[in-house]
Amino acid sequence: MSATDEMREFVRENSDMLSRVLACGNDEARAYALALLANCDEVDSVEEVQEQLNRIKLESS
């Protein structure tokens, strides 16, 4: 398995955690989460994270 494949798998399996990092993490943590999303080349994964991020925002308001 290549590093890119491993990254895609990580993003798919951890989209909820990435959403929470984007919503609540510090600048460095958000930067790492965004780097993973930007380099995974999976539109479905990015959209799933976006949907979860929207839910988190609704829960906190």
TrEMBL record:
<protein>
    <submittedName>
        <fullName>Uncharacterized protein</fullName>
    </submittedName>
</protein>
